[in-house]
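Narrative summary of target 7.
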Amino acid sequence: MVIRIAALALIALAACAAPAPVQEQTRATALATEAQIAAAEAEALSDDWLEWNTPIEPFNVIGNIYYVGAEGISAYLITTPDGHILLDGAFAQTAPQIIANVERLGFHMRDVRLLLNSHAHVDHAAGLARLQLASGAEMVASEADRGALEAGRFPYGPSEDLAFPAIRVDRVIGDGEALTLGGVSLTALITPGHTPGCTSWLMDVTGADGAEHRALFHCSATVAGQSLAPPAYPSIVADFESTLARFGAIQADVLLTNHPGMMDMDQRRARQVAGDANAFVDARALPALNARLEAAFREELARQRAAQN
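Modeled conformation, tokenized:
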């Protein structure tokens, strides 16, 4: 399975159309109902997304970090003695897989205390309502993405017409704020562009060799069919530029992305199974990914600006 960054950047490409302005959305007052969640889970996925949703075996990435997502869309479980943290919900149709994967690893959804989101696009947020209902966990998200999560719809770009079950945001996290549970601390980095509230997370983790490493849960910096010129929202270009610069300055040697292909998960997992316990430790991975993302952003920005003339 190979997911190319160029393909991700062109999902349902709609950049040539002028975007609708970002507007305040009507927020849900509560979590979606069981009936609404079940209806979303029963909907058919497109062929491309169906491939992303192919089930795979969950596994331990490093230390107390586990992969519990599907073949092409990520979800991560971070375990602690005082309960667990679950990052991202993928599609509504992925949520039952995520729950089964957590249980298959010997953990329990009822012990998930914190539910996090990288960003409010349908392929990372639609399963959150089921996970919130199944666990009773506190949902934590950025202020800039909160409205989309609570409305159950992202307001512009290729996914603007794709509704998902509404999520109840219990706590808003700010840039540089930390969440701590059971001795584990995750620091939120608001890295906007892909969405205004795109949130990356940093945490320290101990490897199989006893060495300390720093993991980055990377919120996407792909354009993904959004309009840069004219801007989908006023600061989108500046946001991408600042986010790419920020990623370029971060020191992290465990890169964890919300699409597995962007971190070469299949190859690293194969090395891990073959005996390389630190297959996911690679200080070069983040700079290499960031260089590719920046090149793709510059190319797409130039293309869209040229198309305006």
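DSSP finds ten helices and twelve strands in the chain.
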